[in-house]
Amino acid sequence: MSVNKDYSTFENLNEEQLPVAKHKLHDWTHFAGLYAAEHVAATEFVIGATFVALGAKTMDIILGLLIGNILAVLSWTLITSPIAVETRLSLYTYLNKIAGDSMTKLYNWANVIIFSVISAAMITVSSTAVRFAFDIPAQLNWYPTNLWFVLIVFLVGVVVVSIALYGFNAVSEFSGICAPWLFVMFTSGAMVLLPALSLDVLGTTLPNGWNDLISLGDQSIWTGVDSAGEPGIGLIEVIGFAWAANSITHFGLIDMALLRFAKKKSYALATSTGMMFGHYVAWIAAGIMGAGAAVIIGKTIVELDPGDVAFYALGWSGFVIVIVAGWTTAITNLYRAGLAAQAIFYNHSRKKTTIVVGLITIAIACFPFVFSQILPLLTYAGLLVVPVGAIVFAEHQIFPRIGYTRYWSQYRNLTFSTPAIVSWGLGLVFGFGLNAFNVMSFFYLFIPTWIFTIGVYTLLAGRYGAKEKYPEAEEQERIRNEKIVAFQEEKSKLETTPKKDTTVFSKILKLVSLVALIITLILAGIVLFDSANENSYINNRELFYTYAFICTITYFVTAYWALLRVKSINKAKNE
Asked: Rounded to two decimals, what is the model's pTM?
């Protein structure tokens, strides 16, 4: 079936530059798996240790992370998702409509750099597990000191780039498989190493009630004293960090690229799988694992890399969790970086730009300082892009409510938006200026910066043409959108609806994968609750190491096999 010649303009555009077609939208389960896998990640090992080094207290961690992560989920739901679902555009494409090529290219370059570095950090973290398995020395300098480590980084990076090449569906499928296992393993790791801490502090393998547990945390994990021996951060700072950790994606609107695929705005609530499991349970679990591993090894938690922590918490499964957890985050961020690069080099496909960005990312990953500085990197990156999110929010949500014209810059055929570029620049000066003068907690700077930029952009845009009406241009935009919908509906007729695999054998595969996860949790529970003394604890821990690894292999083999069967059925249907 040929597509109507009236649609030739859209045929020549890359699919990423058009609104997401209706038949390609996803249910909430896709986003639950995607966010769970991305945020139950290798960074949790690093950030879990960071809270210990910053000197937080146990109750501040328990309450602060809960409040901060709820605020983050609400930010995705109330700020990012409405714009993403209403437009079905990535931030990069939307920004080009309202700010022109100049602003968009600057911003996209910033995002290519940011997401490449984040991906590189995750590749490096994954590589720490492989280097541990091959007895390669820990890389503690800012530069690599071992050629074999560089080779490992390259091989790990190739896997990340290969999966990211296949776009959103591949990322979602990979994340969907990894997410349940990652949550089970982080939880199990904390359960396995908690007795080691309890033995060291309380003299028993299991804390006797809530008060003992809090006392254990205060004495051995979150002591309230930082690595320099000074009083540490408090509840307000913990809340702020949990909220700000992903400001780049919710207030900064980067996750329009993912949430534009959501059928409903409310599906942004699925980010809670990542926030509650990854940035709550996993950060707490990582702190427990890090402190427990430090007791076993006889070092401080800040001297350990993720490979060390994971091995002593999970045995050989620890190598797998660090690799997989690094991959899931690296792949998602590399996908974002590829989108940004494709928006700059729009004459090239996203796959080509992702390959180039991926190779650069692998080169950056060879330098270990990247992952060790992930905390300031995430916070500064958020402060850098939040003003741009504020500009888009003002254009989309505020302008129609105050009588301004949305997309006024496009209607005036401007390739350079002075209000947008000036607002971004002033927003950066304002935000980093507040930081330089230490006006408020660093973790909350994104909020006044966002509000300030909205005010500046609204004021400037009104003076440059947003107050005017453009009826002819608006009508052309409406007609264009209708044609895009018709074009996509026409193309959808050529595509088949994915078929579910309801065969008995596939159901058995899924059941076996689920049982493997349940057995892993049961084994971890035995270590935690059925270790009467130190000898019993060590024996149970060794038993967990052995059979949890068998369960890990079983889970991935059966879960991936089930996925391949679904893909095979749909491939046969398409043919």
From this structure: 0.84
